[in-house]
Amino acid sequence: MRHVKYTSSASFHCLEHLSETSMDLYLIHVGKEVCISSQPFGPSCREEYIIHFVISGKGIFSTHGVTYHLKANQMFLIRPDEEVFYQADKEEPWSYLWIGFNGIMSKKILNSCGFSKKSPVLPITNIETVQSLVSRILDASHLTFSHELKRKAFLLALFSDLIESYQDLNNSAKNKYEHNSNTYVTQAIDYINLHHSLGINVSDIADYIGISRAYLNRTFQKELGISVQRFLVDFRMHKAANLLVSTNSSVNEIADAVGYNDALAFSKAFKKKFNFSPKNFREHKDIARHYKEKQLVDHQQDFY
């Protein structure tokens, strides 16, 4: 049996090996660290959920083949049994706080905070509160019942604050769109570029940005003259066209790479776009060559 361990130094504070006191939600470890230049972690898997809160500097976080570039006031989620890699920036290495936890309530809590498998990175709107609560958990380091209750209380308070902040952010976005349509379209295209292989749809894009589907469609119609759905399909089709020309991957592999789990549906969409099946497109070198260097849809170049 591992014993509770508390480590404290100028750059590293950690309380770990805590016992499971509740099946609903229990804290496993918590800490804060000032990382050195290019300090890596992984690739590896963990058995518990871990949220890292970036309080300064920069770094990268990679999961499911997607690499996110993070900075202060952002947080990222590591899920059990999912391989991840993260690393401090060379020039501006990050400092972060973290909490490791588990329990049957974990999924519900994380969903309420705004996390999903397609959105493992979220903004932090209340970093001072997060820092305060994590510090209070670390201060409750004694093996007493009172400190055990304090750790549990501060953990619940932390999640309560994250959930309220997420709800406030969503309500604000739904009730008042503070940015111009150009900004929302840019955010949507960036999200599509990163996640098109994961089978995302228009609702996923709108939820990520924090606006309604209807308003997102209006911004695309205004800026690009097309719907979000058409942009998303066109984006995937041009990505697929490039893969057909530049790789030897099978049609099934390319379908999966651009977010289609049904190769037949992919082939139908491709033929509708280019008037060629994927196989025939690859065989017509003169047609394929035209799209070899084309990374996005026709309308995006007008937008940029």
The CATH C-level name of the largest domain is Mainly Beta
Strand/helix succession: EEEEEEEEEEHEHHHHHHHHHHH
Give the averaged pLDDT, no decimals. 85
Q: How many strands in all?
A: 11
The CATH superfamily of the largest domain is identified as Regulatory protein AraC
* Cα-atom radius of gyration: 23 Å
Shape: elongated
CATH architecture classification of the largest domain: Sandwich
Low-confidence stretches: 293-304
Widest β-sheet, arrangement of strands? 1-2-3-10-5-8-11
Q: Assess the beta-strand content as a share of residues.
A: 15-25%
Describe the biggest sheet? 7 strands, antiparallel
Return the structural class. Answer: alpha+beta
Record keyword descriptors for this entry.
single chain; 304 residues; alpha+beta; Jelly Rolls; Arc Repressor Mutant, subunit A; seven-stranded antiparallel sheet; 12 helices
Layout of strands and helices, then pairs:
Blueprint: E1 5-8, E2 12-16, E3 26-34, E4 40-44, E5 49-56, E6 58-63, E7 66-71, E8 74-78, E9 84-88, E10 95-102, H1 106-113, E11 121-123, H2 127-139, H3 145-175, H4 181-195, H5 202-209, H6 213-223, H7 228-246, H8 251-257, H9 263-274, H10 278-283, H11 285-291, H12 298-303
Antiparallel strand pairs: 1-2, 2-3, 3-10, 4-9, 5-8, 5-10, 6-7, 6-9, 8-11
Helix pairs in contact: 1-3, 2-3, 4-5, 4-6, 7-11
Question: Can you walk through the features of this model?
Answer:
The protein is of the alpha+beta class. The chain folds into two domains: 5-175, Jelly Rolls, CATH 2.60.120.280; 181-303, Orthogonal Bundle (Arc Repressor Mutant, subunit A), CATH 1.10.10. 47% of the residues lie in helices and 21% in strands. The protein contains twelve helices and eleven strands. The chain has helices spanning 106-113, 127-139, 145-175, 181-195, 202-209, 213-223, 228-246, 251-257, 263-274, 278-283, 285-291, 298-303; strands at 5-8, 12-16, 26-34, 40-44, 49-56, 58-63, 66-71, 74-78, 84-88, 95-102, 121-123. The strands form two sheets. It has a seven-stranded antiparallel sheet with strand order 1-2-3-10-5-8-11, with helices on one face. Strands 4-9-6-7 form a four-stranded antiparallel sheet, with no helix packed on it. Helix 4 (181-195) crosses helix 6. The radius of gyration is 23 Å and the shape is elongated.
